[in-house]
Amino acid sequence: MRKREITVHADSEPEALRVAAGMLETTEDNLLLDGVKEDAYSVSLKNADAEIEMEISADGVQVSVISCAPPKGTGQPLTSSQIATALQEMGVTVTPVQTQLEKILGRINKNEDARGMALVRGEVPEQGTDSFLKLLGDLSKPLLPGMPIASKIPAQQPKSGKTVDGREIKPPGKDKAKDIAVVAQEGCRADENGNVFAEVYGLAQVISNRVQMRPLITASQDGLQAFACVYPKDFSGGEITPFKIHSAVEKAGIVAQVDLEAISAGIAKAKETGKPVDKVLVAKGVPPVDGADGELKLEVALDKSIGQEEADGSINYYERGAIHTVHAGDRLAVLLPPKKGVPGTDVFGAPILARDGAPASAQAGENVEFKSERGEFVAIAPGMILFSDGTISVSSVVEINSDIDFSTGNIRMEEGSISITGNIRSGFTVVSAGNLLVQESIEDARIEARGDVEVKHGVVMGETGFIKAGGNVRAHFAQNATIDAGHDVFVDNDLSNCLVTAQNMIVVTEGKGRIQGGVLRCGGGIEAKEVGSELNIRTVLIIGLPPHKQEKLIAEKLSCEMTVHKIDKVIGTGDVRAVLLRTPPDRRKSVAEVLKARIAARQRLKEIEEFIDKEKAEMRKQVKSRIKITGVIHPGVVVEFHGCHLSIEHAISASQLYYDEKTDSIKWAPL
């Protein structure tokens, strides 16, 4: 583009105009002298046509104005045809956009700057982009059912460009962009366009083209409780409200009543802390109520005491609890029927079955008659009532007003209970068919009783002594003793270095209530104030009794079944009277003996089956047993539940230990 003004050095104005006319290629009358400074003259054209200078960009896709000048004086403005001609001379084949051309012409002709403005654009090549999933929110926040999780962005194929002079420009990158197939997994769905939506309340997990939801509403294993994890904000930044969670709970299939108050409290805490709140209880089912087992209701009050000592030293049998004097015709107990269970409902509305109560069973023993029409047990003779191993009996009592020592020798009673006003000395044996009451102490003696054993003072044994009772054992204290009880063991103060086995409970809660050293095993649970000591005395507590060996019983059962089968095969299964009537008179006596053998075998089969069923029930009961310590359980104590072991390494206060069937482990909880 030609120059329109210059500075020349001359001695005079005419000389400056002459020189400038030659340099600007015009006549002197077309020049203006703009100023002079010493010998320097500023000279410009009076009249000049508008001019423009253009260039093609380095990549060839654009023609831009790099300089321009408006018309001056009588000079001509720039026209579209002039620009078109200039572009053609540059080899440009793309036609300028008319509106842009007019805009540039207007700016130039108005003496406005048009530098940098694009006159012509070619086609820029476009790089291809693969299809992908675009997240629509924050993956660390939850989605509510129906909320969009992600959208599929389609693949954009690469596109060639074109320079302003008509040359093709290859696009960068790969030749073809890849498409993806959106996969909606658990808890979400995808539409035909690849948009993914949540179907449950939860956190979205997106890996490549796969989307799934981790639910934040869960139910407990038994289905009786539903929990939610609540947040202050949702996936898209919206507020979480109680009603949104309520709706999500219902869409999770939960039909139990939703606890809006608990949800509101959880959300308030989440907003306060800025963190999610887990395990918010949002709904509860209705737990089943197991039916009550049938019960043997004793009409005579029986407690854990054998008797009450009167002022004259004798025993008042009307006040002794477990040993109680009755008269012929007295009603002793009644069998109450079991109750049916009431089924429950889980949070999803499904029924939860309840267990019906099991019938109670008891047998009439010595001097007791069972009135089946009323379910009553009635005494048929006066005496002392005994209840052991499900049998109610009435028995007499023998009282010995001295120590058991060399003056009496060993005592073995085949019937009745025994009351001893003195001590049982070391080395002696006392066997009672019923209960045994010792007013003083038991030394290293051998004690056996089918019923209860009560020692008013203590038990101090050596290596040979033991106490074996079919019922309860109770003592003020026990030291180095071996005790085997068919029911409970009660010790008032100290149980020290003893070997104790109880079919039901071991209770040391009166006085000091302390267990130190020894091995204690039971089926129903242990209660005490303190176990072990600060000196780490090894003390072993075992819950769970070893099952009886049943090989002999099973063999006997098979033998009885074979006997019944053989007899039935020979003489048939009809009524006994009918069998004898059709038997020849000379053979009736032998057939009658065979029938007696069948009756005996059937009765024994019934007894064996009842024993096995009873033992199974006892094992189920033992699994639910607990150890309760109201004071301290010290280090050095070892606890065993059904083969699981736990060594106490740190002191624990006011706690209970129990067996967790789900984890097959021992756990503890505060009382």
Structure description:
18% of the residues lie in helices and 36% in strands. It contains eight helices and 51 strands. The strands form eleven sheets. A six-stranded parallel β-barrel has the order 39-41-43-45-44-42. A four-stranded antiparallel β-sheet has the order 7-8-13-12, with no helix packed on it. Strand 12 and strand 13 (196-198) form a beta hairpin.
Strand proportion? 35-45%
The number of strands is: 51
Spatial arrangement of strands, main beta sheet: 39-41-43-45-44-42
Q: Largest beta sheet, briefly? A: 6 strands, parallel, barrel
List the helices and strands and how they pair.
Elements: E1 5-9, H1 13-24, E2 31-37, E3 40-45, E4 51-56, E5 62-69, H2 80-90, H3 98-109, E6 118-121, E7 132-135, E8 148-153, E9 161-162, E10 168-169, E11 183-184, E12 188-190, E13 196-198, E14 202-207, E15 210-215, E16 217-219, E17 225-230, H4 242-251, H5 260-273, E18 277-284, E19 295-298, E20 308-309, E21 315-316, E22 324-326, E23 331-336, E24 344-345, E25 351-352, E26 363-364, E27 368-371, E28 376-379, E29 383-388, E30 391-395, E31 397-400, E32 411-412, E33 417-420, E34 429-432, E35 436-438, E36 446-449, E37 453-460, E38 466-469, E39 473-479, E40 482-485, E41 489-491, E42 494-502, E43 505-508, E44 514-522, E45 525-531, E46 539-543, H6 551-571, H7 576-581, H8 588-623, E47 626-633, E48 637-641, E49 644-647, E50 652-660, E51 665-670
Parallel strand pairs: 11-15, 26-30, 31-33, 32-34, 33-35, 34-36, 35-37, 36-38, 37-39, 38-40, 39-41, 39-42, 40-42, 41-43, 42-44, 43-45, 44-45, 44-46, 45-47, 46-48
Antiparallel strand pairs: 1-3, 2-3, 4-5, 5-6, 7-8, 8-13, 9-10, 12-13, 14-15, 16-17, 17-18, 19-23, 20-21, 22-29, 23-28, 24-25, 27-28, 29-30, 47-50, 48-49, 50-51
